[in-house]
Write a structure and sequence with these properties.
Layout: H1 2-6, H2 11-32, H3 41-58, H4 63-93, H5 97-103, H6 114-150, H7 161-192, H8 199-218, H9 221-227
Helix pairs in contact: 2-7, 2-8, 3-7, 4-6, 5-6, 6-7, 7-8
């Protein structure tokens, strides 16, 4: 059945799929390992996260820091719930290609077997599943960070104060990396949806997604504000 379904995919579909995965991997690599002299917003924020932990050592009381880390956990928890619902919705669509076909009937020219719709939904669900797993891990890491923050001595002169703050910063950064990677997976899952119409919309949506991610990380006004003194 899968071999029969593959007959309904064109070389342009293959190009779009390769571009989708290559773009997802490539833009993530560029964002996390940007060229020297041109840091991404994510990398700039890594520095601010370390500075946050250093400032926390001298801040008393640390209610503000607790509120910030709690808000980060709440935001991550929201995305965990959202992606879980999306996965459930995607699984409900698999095997119901006839319903998807009826929705997209006016947008396609040739009749398409149900297995083709199912395969397209599965590709989108792979990105959503990756996002879910990363959100869950980010949520756990933010929890670890909160514990490490609580372990930082209140005495500025304590020999373990700044080393423990640096440990908290490192875990905080790792949590942020997973959170940002999960968001990118959501972006590319959304880029998969136009594939239900055809390969050309998939190509356009993928290129648009790559451009949006690049611009927000390397050419946004928020980046300029972060770099300003």
């Amino acid at each position: 059945m899968i071999q029969l379904a593959l007959l309904h995919f064109t070389p342009l579909d293959a190009v779009g799929l390769v571009l989708l995965w290559a773009g997802w991997l490539g833009i993530g690599r560029i964002i996390e390992h940007p060229p020297k002299g041109r840091p991404s917003v994510s990398c700039i924020m890594h520095g601010f996260r370390r500075e946050w932990m250093r400032q926390m050592v001298t801040r008393s009381p640390r209610i503000f820091d607790a509120n910030v880390i709690d808000s980060l956990r709440q935001a991550t928890s929201f995305y965990v719930s959202g992606t879980m619902i999306a996965i459930g919705g995607g699984l409900a669509l698999i095997g119901k290609g006839d319903q998807i076909s009826s929705v997209a009937r006016d947008l396609t020219i040739q009749p398409t077997p149900e297995i083709v719709w199912d395969l397209k939904v599965v590709v989108a669900m792979l990105f959503v599943t990756d996002a879910f797993l990363r959100f869950v891990w980010a949520h756990r890491l933010f929890g670890y960070c909160a514990i490490l923050m609580a372990a930082v001595p209140n005495d500025v002169d304590h020999p373990e104060a700044y080393p423990r703050a640096d440990q908290a910063a490192t875990v905080n950064i790792q949590a942020a990396k997973n959170f940002n990677a999960a968001l990118r997976s959501i972006y590319f899952a959304l880029a998969c949806l136009p594939w239900l119409i055809g390969p050309v919309p998939l190509l356009v949506a993928t290129l648009a997604t790559i451009y949006v991610l690049w611009r927000r990380e390397f050419a946004s006004s928020s980046r300029k504000a972060m770099l300003s003194r």
